[in-house]
Structures are given as C-alpha cells and as structure tokens.
Fold G-protein coupled receptors family 3 profile domain-containing protein.
Amino acid sequence: MVFAIEEINNSTELLPGIRLGYQIYDSCASVPVAVHMAFQFLNSFDPVFSMDNNCSHSGMVMAVVGGSGSTTSISLSQVIRSFNIPQVSHFSTCSCLSDKQQYPNFFRTFPSDQFQAEAMAKLVKHFGWTWIGAVRSDSDFGNNGMASFLKAAQKEGICVEYSLSFHRTYPHSRIQRVIYCLQNYIFTLSYESSPSRQWIGSFWVTNPELMRFSFCKVCDGNEDIQNLQNQYTDTSQLRVTNMAYMAVYAVAHAIHNAVCQEIDGTVECDKLTKLESKQILIELKKVNFSQNGYDVSFDANGDPVAIYELVNWQKSENGVTEIVAVGLYDTVRAGAQTGNLLITRRTVPVSVCTDSCPPGTRKVLQKGKPICCYDCTACPEGEINSTDCLPCQKEFWPNKKRDTCIPKPVEYLSFQDLLGIILATFSVIGACLTIVTAAVFFCHRKTPIVRANNSELSFLLLISLTLCFLCSLTFIGAPSEWSCMLRHTAFGITFVLCISCVLGKTIVVLMAFKATIPGSNVMKWFGPPQQRMTVVSFTFIQVLICTVWLVVNPPFPIKNLTTYKEKIILECALGSAAGFWAVLGYLGILAAFCFVLAVLARKLPDNFNEAKLITISMLIFCTVWITFIPAYVSSPGKFTVVVEIFAILASSFGLIMCIFAPKCFIILFKPEKNTKKYLINKNQL
C-alpha cells in the first residue's frame, strides 16, 4: 500500500500535483479490533500522515482499503457505510459482500467466492471426482463460501459426502479435509491431514509457509534468517499483494476522475476542490484502467472480472516444493468454462463413490446414499444404458458395447447364401434333366415304350415337372409383393397339373387293362379327349382356388420382428391362411386319390405301364408332403422357405426318377427291349 501511494505521488499522469496521505490500522484479524479502529478514524481529526505537511484535507478519510478477511470487511462495512465512505478490499471474497442492499459502499479487487466456487466445481468435474468431502472454516467466509460451492457442485452433478465446519480449537477427530478455510486454520489442518488426501483449495494454496508445514518441515531453531524463505521474504508469489496494489490505484483513479481533466493534451487537477467521500464512491463505480497488464473494473455488485490461475504443488528435482501454474479460469474469455489444463502428474487420483456402470447396465441408487452412490444392474435384453436403460426401437438392436442402438441385420434366403446357391443349383439341374428327358422321349416318340405309356400325358407331365423345378426359384431372394403372390400360386397350380397328369396316366392303365376283357368298350369312354379334359378340370379347380385367394387376401411381404429379437426376417405372409391350406389340401386330396389308384394298378402287366414305379413315386410324393406340414410350421425364419423348396424339389425328383428314369434307361441303353416283338414275347411268357 505504501509502495503504491509513493508511486502515485511521484506520477506525472495520475493525480499530477496532488499527493495522497494515509493511515494504517492493524485489525489483528479480529472483528472487535476492526470495529474499534473504524470508530477511531471516523471520530478522529488527527492530521493524516503525508510526505509533507501541505495537505488540504487533513483529518478527512476519503476511502478505506481493506480489510483482508471477509468477516472483518463485513463488520467494517456495516460501520462506515452510513458515512458514504467507499471501501475497497484486496482479499475479502465472501459472495455475501456482493449484496448492494447491505453493502452499498463495498468494492474489491479480489474476485467473489461465487466465481471461485464455480471454478472449483468445474475443476473437480474436469478430473472426474464425483464423490468428495468438504470442510470449511467456521466463519462468514467459510460458511458463505461453502454454500456457494455446494450449489455449484450440485449443478455439476458432484456428490458431497459430508460438509463440516472447522475451527482451530476443534479436537483432532473433526479435522478432515478442507476447501474453504482461513489461512490460519490451514496450519492446524496441515499437521493432521492424511498425505493420501487430494486437496482442492482457494487462495491459501499459494502460501509458502503452508507448503513447508504440509511436508512436515518444521523449524528446529537453527535457521539462518538471511537464508529464510517465507511469505514475507519471497517476492515471487505476490498474488494477494498485487490485489492491495490495485485497490490503492482504484481509489487513486476515482479521485483523479473527480478532480482532474485533460485540457489540450495536458492533465490538470483542481487542488482546491473540496472532495466528499460520496464523490469517490460514485467515481469508483466508473473506474476502468489497466496497470502493469492487469485490468481493473467493477461490475454493478462492486466485483472485479474473475480470473483465476490454477496452480499445483510440485516437488522439483532437488526436493523443494514449488507452486507451478497449470491452467487458467477466465470468466470472460473462456465463457465461464475451465481453460486448458496442463496436468504434469501422470496419474490423476480417483474420487468416486461408485465406478461408472459398464455398458449394458443401469444405475440403481443405494438407499440413504447420495446420487453418486449406486449399484449397477443389467439392462433387459434389447436395451442400452444411459442414465437409465432405454429400449431400442423395433427395427434396432444394441451394439456389442450396448451403448447405442444400431439397425437390425435383415435376413432372407438369398442367391448369395450357401443354402440358396445349393437349392437354386438343384432346381436348375432338375429343370435341365426334365428337358433332356422330354428331348429323349420326343426323339423316340414312335417307339413302343413311349407310345405304350400315353405319350401326350407324358409330355404334359414333363412340362409340368419343369415348371415345378423352376417355381422353387421364386422362393429365393428378397420377398416382394409380386414374388409372394407368384411363389405360392405357381407352386399350387404346377403341382396340381403334375399330379393330374400322373392321375390320368394311372386311370389310362386301369382302363386299358379293363379293355382287354372280351366285350369291354371302356376305352371309348376314356380316350385322349377325356384324358385332356380330366387334366384341365382338375387344374382349373386349383386355378379357381388360387384366384379367390389372390382376390380376397393375397400373400404379401412382411418384416418378421418376433421370431428373432436381434434380427429382422423378410418373409411372405400367407394373407389368408385358409387360402393357403385350401391349395395345399386340394393338392393332398389329388395325391391321395392318385396313390390309391396306383396301388390298385401295381400288379398290372409291365408291358402296359410302369404301375409299380408310379406307386413308388406317389408314395415318395405323399411322404414328402405329409412330412412337410410339421416341418413347415416349426421351422423359424428363412428355414421355412428352405423346407418348402426342399419339399418341392424332393417330390419333383421323386416323380421324374421313378416314372421316367427307367424308360430313358431302356431307350438309351437297352434298345432291344424297346420293340413290339419283345413286348409280345414277354406277354406270352
């Protein structure tokens, strides 16, 4: 303070020609002493100490710089505010002093605890410390500061396990951990606190004496005063000292603005103006200057711009504890956000009540504990964890980490699947085999074996078998509206056509056998026209059933979300289940009827037909489709389609291999048996 006043008095720019005087009182950090001193200088008109005796305002106090502690400043302000004497404190931080209703004359160059509380809470959150304890000095400074910190901590989601008041006379059992404590109390705490505790503190962390005590370096009585390093001899850490320096300059600038003005580039001050302290109070609100790179101004509450330096105690290589700046908190430039922090230690201590819940689990608060204390329980299937378990939408599923929902994979029997490739290959092979068989029959259409087995129905049966093999391809690929309608109706119609042809051939065999009986003219009633009409009639009935099905409620593509929770199955819904089972039921009735007739014809002579082979083929056909029903109903997802295709291919291969393979073998490899003479001789035998 003395240094600042002397510097101002020697300045040619600030208050030129005017000298400031001062009186210094020691409050001894005691409220009664501070109040006594306040009344003393208010009631005294003793000459103010000056560098000379030429003082125009002897005995008049224009402003007060101080006090250091918040409690002292509160008491001092309550005494002098009635006299409109401005008070500028360099070290009082209680946020309560920002209340202009109670402290209209109070200003300060040290930021309010409100900003410090917010900075501390953000710093704690920056390190991920969500569970802390707090102890305060039992004073106005400590209690108000702690209230501000607890509010800021709650806003940042930090749990405070305990908040205890502390006094240097308290027993050791109450000495725990501290955030807001007066410097005097810290020395007591430094002896008692555990070295494993992480300390977050305010201004006291820059006290070199505290660093010495915190590492058990006590005086032994042999110290050399010339080499002594303490807060009075160390000039490298003048943080609070600089605030006192700025407080004096703030008062000086207020006086300067009241009595001085610039005329033609020259500053002139009216030395004879009789100043009132109220004028200084008004001018202090307008003060805005920069001194040695430090900006000074006051807001409506008398508070300066809050800029904090973040420091860390670190041991140097020679074992000396040093204060190292590691960051900055600027409420203006950083938008009240913590700036970049340079963390010099490799590991950061952990202070949480419960570790973060792993992915796929949620928090369950522990009864009677703060919100930072919880148990982790698994989320239900299909849900991800955030603050709570959240279900994914129907077409989404949690990823492996269970921290986000991703689209479910879509599954259907495609031409790229191994099963799809195999089934499509057999379908094409079957169609090709049927076409080759038809070509062989066509080339040998005039031979007895072809003519004896009703060549017209044989060619129609081969055509229908070709369509049966090819219709299985419509079941492979992504279901669409047209493919869903085509696959079931094509399957139903082609297989009815196929069975109708087999049925016609079987009836022809029976009629032909009856025709050999003398006097029988049965073949007249079941000649080629009747055979064609029989096939067309049976097929037309199936076409009619399929048409009604498609008109009333046709099959359509759907996304099956119920069979598998973790994936989507693209499939064809039946539309009308009655239509589907009507198609399948009609086919089953024809197949059963054909099988019965084939059984009746199985013992007929081989020169007329292959009655036994027809019986075997129909037995295979009926067995396949009887087995199909339970397999179809119980198969999940795309395997339903696989079962249906397998049934189509198995029954189709059964028909062509049983009915046509033996004939082709005789035509190609046993041509001597494919003669009329051979058939007559065989019949005679």
Notes: Residues 47-51, 334-346 have pLDDT under 50 and may be disordered. The longest strand covers residues 321-330.
